[in-house]
Amino acid sequence: MSSNNSPDFSDLRDAPEDEGALNRLRSDPRMWIAIIGGVALLITLVSVIALVAITSRRANEPRTSNVAVITVRANPTTTPSLTPIASQTTLALISPTPSIASPTPTLDLTLTATNLVPQRFASLSEIKGTVQVKANPASGWATVSAPMTVPPGATILTSENSSVKVTFTEGTIVRIGAQTQFTIANMSGDTANPSTILKLDFGKVWTIVTTALGGGKFEVQMPVGVASVRGSYMSAESNSTDSIEIVTCLEGLCSYNNRNGNVNLITNQQTQSTRGGAPLAPRPLDRNQLNDWARERIPEVLTLTPTTTPTSTRTSTFTPTLTRTPTITFTPSLTFTPSLTPTPTLTITPTPSQTPTNTATTAPTNTPVPPSPTSVPIGTPAKLAIVTVPSSATAGVAFTVVVEVRDANGNKVTGASNTVTMSINSGPVSVFSSGTLTLGALNGTATFSDLKLNTSGSYTFKAVSTGLTDGISPSPTVINGAGAASYSLAVPTAPPSVTAGTAFPVKLEAKDSFNNLASSYSNSVTIAASPNDPLASFSPTTFSGGMLTFNATLKTAGTYTIMITDSVNSPVLTISTSSITVTAGTADSLIITGPITLTGGGASGTYTVTAKDVYSNTATSYNNTVGLSSSAPLTYPSTITMTSGVNSNVTISASTVVTPVAKTVTVYDFPTTVGPPSQGSITITVNP
């Protein structure tokens, strides 16, 4: 071996190449020591090269797009180092124990986030009573009791004495009253230009839209009209029972329009539309409307300057305060939960007065996905609910009522098959005219599709099943008269007797075949007296709401019936009143009738004196004394007595004359010669 301790193989190189030499080489320990040392050196060299390559690659590797970098700097005497690990919705801060030299250090936190695309959604909170949500038209109803997020297209329904608060991403608030159903029909745009359309089927909502809409809009679509608002406090109400829509504007600018008109509202004004008519002119809020905005119901009105909720669309630099037990929270989508070892913990609470400064430099790409409505476990059958009733139906025509079997929380029990019986809860009659009244529920629903009522009026219904709470109609059903083909005219009312020329009312009703008032009947009819009175008059002649009240005037004394004929109807309908006696009025004139020629001395004639009313009827109530006057050659009584307006035994005689002479005989109301009744006369010619 040489002096440097290296193995010496010279003696082996000079050895003859035979098997003995090879065996001596394999058994030499210097040989094995050299081999093992070389292998170890090679392994070490390869490991060092690999480690350098990996370290270099990681140093040059870019950060992933969904990592947020947070740098925390304390006072000069305190230097905590926070290294967060962030995901899309949660950032966990892992740091060694900070050294706090000052009791009130000021922290400067810079948050840089990327790939956060704002998507608008709505959150439910302050849930009171029974509130149900349908995520989309194809899904079923789910009762909610805890805060949750709902997507566009969701429908929200509140029951009696229930309410819920809906908060949109950009800070808009909608409070939902009791017995209200509305759908988030559209929720497009971003938080800078939000477009929101709510479809209000019935009930009432209060809206607080105080964030800038930019190029967006906010509308409440009701069955008839549309209410819209920009930066205001507005309520919209749709009363389906009375067909009334009311819009109030507590502050700011609001508007309401339908096909019959448009109204713009300012602070403390309201308008109303009834049955789709033109909206009323703006008027001040009444006491009831002001009470609806009470802070107990709508707490946002306390200051009329609601807080704008920060959103995840901006990443900003905030100046937080250091407290003992906080959390880092960004509303509504990013939640920062620091993990500090040991205490204290940090709370970042942005205040409304802070103006976010966007430091993001990369266009967002990630979109937060709102969670689906919470699934509610379905219980056992506990009660019935009538979910579908018609607002109106026609007498004798089938209509449908739908009943659901529900659990104690109001959820439909889809597997229920309970036997359900339908009955009348209130109305003019106590039983249905016909229809299947008992059914077994199918998948939790019993559909009564052939119910009939023949008596018109307003009804509510009741569904019963053994062991379950009864279900009552949520709204009344009005049964109207049947179709025109079954109309008949009811016997009209009229007085038994009248004085000639005196108008009197006649009332007439149109009835269907079930004797209900046919309220839609509006035909024109022909009215006449039988026998004919040429002086009679009748008006009006057209039904309204199934009723006709006309004034009849008969002027000729006698006994009549009034005939009403509807020629428009098929078949023709005719009805008549009972007999009506027409009596003469007071005397208006006197008339004398008889021979107008007397011939020869002593000749005489019999004459009749009659009292007449203004329509030439004999004034039967006239029993006065009547005087006669004339001159020779006539002889007559100076007075006569009238009986029931007539004296038919008046004798007038003539004396002998040389030549024919004409004389006028006048009758008058004795002793008055002028005045009612008007005097009458006759000219009599006396011949020799």
Task: Give an account of the 3D structure.
This protein has 688 residues and is mainly beta. It has 6 domains: 1-61, no CATH class; 64-118 and 311-364; 122-302, Sandwich (Jelly Rolls); 383-480, Immunoglobulins (Immunoglobulin-like, Sandwich), CATH 2.60.40; 484-583, Macroglobulin (MG2) domain (Immunoglobulin-like, Sandwich), CATH 2.60.40; 589-687, Immunoglobulins (Immunoglobulin-like). The strands form 9 sheets. The protein has a 15-stranded mixed sheet that branches. Strands 24, 26, 27, 29, 30 and 31 form a 6-stranded mixed sheet that branches. Strands 33, 35, 38, 39 and 40 form a 5-stranded mixed sheet that branches.
Number of E-type strands: 49
What level of helicity do the residues show? under 10%
Indicate the CATH topology of the largest domain.
Jelly Rolls
Let me know the largest β-sheet.
15 strands, mixed
User: Strand content of the residues, in percent?
Assistant: 35-45%
Write down the domain tally. 6
User: What class do helices, strands and sheet pairing give?
Assistant: mainly beta
Structural shape: elongated
Assign the CATH architecture of the largest domain: Sandwich
Mean pLDDT: 77
Number of helices: 4
CATH domain class name of the largest domain? Mainly Beta
